[in-house]
Amino acid sequence: MQANTQPIDRETLLKEANKIIREHEDYLNGMVATDVVQQNGVLIFRGEYFLDEQGLPTAKSTAVFNMFKHLAHVLSGKYHLSA
């Protein structure tokens, strides 16, 4: 996949990802990507998952998971992390 994608550094990619998050119709207050890694050509975003006191997922957790999945789908086709 890297042959058809542009290199991008982690900080710039996170800025773009968080811009996409804020502008998305499913944005929730506090939703933010704080880290990204690349595995087998796929960008994997990480951040707060809004777990409850017992560490279990909440309704917001699903929204965050779906947003990070959206970012992976949109941005993995455009970019790969530069070394």
From TrEMBL:
InterPro entries: DUF2498, YciN_sf
Entry protein name: YciN family protein
Taxonomic source organism: Tenebrionibacter intestinalis
